[in-house]
UniProtKB/TrEMBL annotation:
Pfam family, one: Bac_luciferase
EC code: 1.14.-.-
Species this chain originates from: Agromyces lapidis
Record keyword Nucleus present: no
Name of the protein in its database record: NtaA/DmoA family FMN-dependent monooxygenase
Length: 468
C-alpha cells in the first residue's frame, strides 16, 4: 500500500483550455485572490500535501487558446506568500526560472516565505523554454537556452549556500549580554562560477526547513540529470503507466549513480481528473468541455493569427490518414468512416469514447470536432467517479509508476471541490493517503529529512551536487 503524495497544481481559471467558459467557472484573473484563498482552505481541510504554482515568464494572445491560465495570473511567489497568511499546515510550492532569476533575490524571498509559513515553502526550479521570456529580461534566448542547465546547477548550489548563511544557532539575541549574533556562525557564500558570482551571506535567517524542498520539472536528458542530482521531487510528463514506471526507474537510477539515496527522490506526475457523481456525469462534463474548445473552422474567414496551428480539420486529416478538411466539424464519425482511419486515428476515437462516452456505433457518436480537440489538447485526463479516479491513483502507486500526483482541475472551483471532497476521502478510506497531517513542515509531509548546513557539513548528495 503506497502512501501517495498529493498536491494541487493551482490554475485559478482552470487547467483545461475551455474550463473558464464552463457555466459557473471562475474566469476573471482580476478576481484570482478569492479563488486562491478558497482553494487553499478547501485543500488544507482535505489535508493535501501542498499547493503548487507553475510559472511562465511571458504572455500573448496565443495563450488564450492553448493555456488561458497563463495569459494573466498572480506571480507564484506572491501567491504562496499571500496563502502563507491564510493557511496553517499545507505546503506552498512556487516556481522560479533559474535562467532569468537572481539567486540572492530568490534566496531571500524563498527563505522569507519559509520563515513566514512555519516551514511550508517549496521551490520548483525550471530553466524555461519560452523564447519571449528572454526578451522580457533583456537577454538573448539562444545564449540563455544553450547554458540553461549549467546555470541551473550553479544556481541550485548557490541557493543552498545562501539559505545556510546563518547556522541554526548563529542568532544569539542575548539582551542581557548584549550579544545579537555569533559572527563565527555567519557564513559568506563566496561563489565564483562560470554563470554566477555571489559573495553573500544572505540577510535572512536560515529557513525553518534548512533548505526548501526543491522540485524540478522537465523532459530532456539534462533535465532528468538535474532532477536526479539536485531535486527532492521530479515533476515529469508521462504518457501512460508503463512510461511512468520507466521514467521513475530511470530517474532513480541516475540518482543512485550520483551517489544519493535514490529513495529520497520523489517522482510526481501531473494529472487532470474529471470527477462526476456517475461515470456518465463525468463524461458529460468532459464532453461539454471538449465542445467549448474552439477549432480553426469556427471562424468562417479563418482563425486569428495567434490560433494554434494544430487545432484544425486539415491537421486532423494528417493524423487520420483520411482527408476530412472539406467536411463539417459536426459530421458524425461512424464505424464506416473509422474503418478508413490510420491506427493513431482509431486510437483517438477510443480516447474520445473513454472520455466522453461517445462511440461511433452509439446514439451519440463523436464528431470530427471531438477528434480535433482530443488530438490537439494535451491533458493527462482521467474521467469517472471518485472511486474510478482513486482506483487509477492507487494502481499507479502500487505499480511504482509515481510517488504522487500534481492534480489539475479543469474547472475552478467546481472540479477542484469534486476532487478534494470526493476523491481524497476515497483515497483516505483505502489507506493510501493520510487523514491528518503527519508533521508541521512541507518536508514532514513529503517524508524528507532536514539537511545539514552546507557550510558545516559536506553536501549530502540528496541535497544537491557538490560543485567542484
Ligand atoms: C510537468 C511539467 C511542468 C512544467 N512546468 C513549467 C513551468 O511551470 N514553467 C516553466 O517555465 N516550464 C515548465 N515546464 C517546462 C520545463 O521546465 C522545460 O522548460 C521544458 O520541459 C523544456 O526543457 P527540457 O527539454 O529540458 O525539459 C514544465 C515541464 C513539465 C514536464
Amino acid at each position: 500500500m503506497t502512501r501517495l503524495i498529493i498536491g494541487a497544481m493551482v490554475r485559478a481559471i482552470g487547467a483545461y483550455p475551455s474550463g473558464w467558459r464552463y457555466p459557473g467557472a471562475h474566469r476573471d484573473p482580476r478576481g484570482d485572490a478569492a479563488v486562491l484563498r478558497r482553494t487553499a482552505e478547501v485543500a488544507e481541510r482535505a489535508r493535501l500535501d501542498y499547493l503548487f504554482f507553475g510559472d511562465w515568464l511571458a504572455t500573448g494572445h496565443d495563450l488564450e487558446f492553448r493555456d488561458p491560465y497563463l495569459v494573466a495570473r498572480i506571480d507564484p511567489l506572491s501567491a504562496v506568500t499571500y496563502l502563507a497568511g491564510v493557511t496553517e499546515r499545507i505546503g506552498l510550492i512556487a516556481t522560479a526560472n533559474t535562467s532569468y532569476s537572481d539567486p540572492f533575490t530568490l534566496a531571500r524571498a524563498t527563505a522569507s516565505v519559509d520563515l513566514l509559513s512555519g516551514g511550508r515553502a517549496g521551490l520548483n526550479l525550471v530553466t524555461g523554454a519560452e523564447p519571449r521570456a528572454a526578451g522580457n529580461h533583456g537577454r538573448d534566448f539562444d545564449a540563455a537556452n544553450e547554458t540553461r542547465y549549467d546555470r541551473a546547477v550553479e544556481f541550485e548550489h548557490v541557493l543552498r549556500r545562501l539559505w545556510d548563511s546563518f547556522e541554526d544557532d548563529a542568532i544569539v539575541a542575548d539582551a542581557a549580554a548584549g550579544v545579537f549574533i555569533d559572527p563565527s556562525k555567519l557564513h559568506a557564500t563566496d561563489f565564483e562560477g562560470r554563470h554566477l558570482s555571489v559573495t553573500g551571506p544572505l540577510n535572512v535567517a536560515r529557513p525553518v526547513q534548512g533548505h526548501l524542498p526543491i522540485v524540478h520539472a522537465g523532459t530532456s536528458p539534462r533535465s532528468r540529470l538535474f532532477a536526479a542530482q539536485n531535486a527532492d521531487l521530479a515533476l515529469v510528463a508521462v504518457s501512460d503507466l508503463e512510461h511512468a514506471v520507466q521514467v521513475r526507474e530511470e530517474l532513480r537510477a541516475l540518482a543512485f549513480e550520483s551517489g544519493r539515496d535514490d529513495r529520497t527522490l520523489k517522482v510526481i506526475a501531473p494529472v487532470l481528473p474529471i470527477v462526476g457523481e456517475t461515470r456518465a456525469h463525468a463524461q458529460s462534463i468532459a464532453d461539454e468541455l471538449s465542445e467549448l474548445v474552439q477549432i480553426a473552422e469556427d471562424w468562417p474567414d479563418g482563425p486569428p493569427a495567434a490560433f494554434p496551428a494544430n487545432r484544425s480539420l486539415a491537421q486532423l486529416s494528417t493524423l487520420l490518414g483520411v482527408d476530412v478538411s472539406g467536411l463539417s466539424p459536426d459530421r458524425a464519425v461512424t464505424p464506416a468512416i473509422v474503418a478508413e482511419f490510420s491506427a493513431p486515428g482509431q486510437e483517438l476515437v477510443e480516447i474520445v469514447a473513454e472520455r466522453t462516452g461517445r462511440g461511433p456505433a452509439g446514439e451519440r457518436p463523436p464528431t470530427l470536432r471531438h477528434l480535433v480537440v482530443a488530438a490537439s489538447v494535451n491533458a493527462s485526463m482521467i474521467v469517472g467517479t471518485a472511486e474510478d479516479i482513486a482506483t487509477e491513483f492507487e494502481a499507479w502507486g502500487d505499480a511504482g509508476a509515481v510517488d504522487g500526483f500534481n492534480v489539475l482541475s479543469a474547472i475552478q472551483p467546481a472540479q477542484f471541490d469534486a476532487f478534494a471532497l470526493g476523491v481524497v476521502p476515497e483515497l483516505q478510506r483505502r489507506g493510501v493517503f493520510p487523514t491528518e497531517y503527519e508533521g508541521e513542515t512541507l518536508r514532514d509531509h513529503l517524508g524528507l529529512a532536514r539537511p545539514e548546513n552546507v557550510h558545516v557539513a559536506p553536501l549530502v548528495a540528496s541535497s544537491g551536487t557538490a560543485l567542484a
